[in-house]
Amino acid sequence: MEVFDANALLRRLSTRLKMRHLLLLLQIRQHKSLTRVAEQMASTQPAITNALSELEGMFGGLLFDRSARGMAPTELGKVVLERAGAMVHDLRHLVRDIETLASGHAAHLHIGITPFISGQILTTAIQRTRPDGDQRLTVTIHEGTSDQLLAQLSDHALDLVIGRASSGVNLEKIKFEVLYRQQPRLIASRRLAAQLARVRLDWRKMVELDWILGAPHTPMREQVADIFLGAGVVPPVPVVESYSAKLIGEMIAANERAVSIVPADIAEELVRVAGVAIVPYSFDWTLSPIALFMRSDGLQRRADQLFAESLRAVCEETYSTLSS
What we know:
With 324 residues, this protein is of the alpha/beta class. It has 13 helices and 12 strands.
């Protein structure tokens, strides 16, 4: 059996591996065909074939299996592709950081957020983060589900993720810390909320209202479904599925039959900005906690660490005030 020589592999990669090689691998993973890759990269199939052969020689093994269904990464290929994606994202972030520095700002952050994260808390944390004195951050906010965002975090497309910590999320190579917990609130137009407040809620009648809910198979949607199932009622089919707090607030304020269940802090924001009302009803369940997710490789930049400190402090101040 041939002994694996890590030093020899490192020497080969250090002297021969180029960024165009990494881009080629990512294109093959996406298109699964050397012909389509050649078209995308304005090259020829023989040239792409030779480049892949050169890469497999560098790594000492096949990176893709070929079949009638297309090309699929081997176990070695999966390992290489994971790092290739991260290295390409890091290069793009480096360019953005240099652009940010040239514009007079300290750093640029790519932050992923799941639905129903308080905009006020996020804004305050960003404003407080000053890596170099008076220089401020620039930030790109990426919205999505926990699975989508954590995959992008692992792939280095994102620097940090603020989302809901639940048993269903993939925490491989990810560390997290709980920031705060949320209680659910039922919201409606002011007139409907006043009507509902005068009677005991009957979920068999509530199912007849116009529900605005998040996507199926999300923690909150499943908990809402459990309310109705516990009352012996088939859960409602929502008239609108949305995770946009602004849209939910506007639609509920304009529709005398519309209702939704959202986290308490989001409900309070919608009371102020959209004119909805909170129905005084206490749920016997809580939502999964909001957490800050970071890569566990310990490679966070100073700007990432400072933002995490600011976010942590803002959450402690805000939620200790609300609970006091």
